């Protein structure tokens, strides 16, 4: 049921032309998920959540965050 609601919300967002940013900072990811920065860092260390380290900061794809939340 929850997955169906998320799917519908994504379809509505796409039709409205609102596009979520591809990458977000750890602070923005924390706000999006209501998880602490420490929890996100732990998930990255365990390999549960994908993140990029190329810029020297942790950056997350919005789709990866949503996938992690739904698992």
Give structural notes.
- The chain has helices spanning 2-16, 26-33, 37-46, 62-70; strands at 23-25, 59-61.
- With 71 residues, it is mostly helical.
- A two-stranded antiparallel ribbon has the order 1-2.
What is this structure, in a nutshell?
By secondary structure, this protein is mostly helical. It has helices at residues 2-16, 26-33, 37-46, 62-70; strands spanning 23-25, 59-61.
Topology:
Elements: H1 2-16, E1 23-25, H2 26-33, H3 37-46, E2 59-61, H4 62-70
Antiparallel strand pairs: 1-2
Order of adjacent strands in the largest pleated sheet:
1-2
Uncertain segments are none
User: What would the principal axes of the Cα set say about the shape?
Assistant: globular
**What is Rg?**
13 Å
Structural class: mainly alpha
Oligomer: single chain
Average pLDDT taken over every residue:
88
Can you count the beta strands?
2
Helix and strand sequence:
HEHHEH
The helix tally amounts to: 4
Tags for this entry?
single chain; two-stranded antiparallel ribbon; 71 residues; 2 strands; mainly alpha
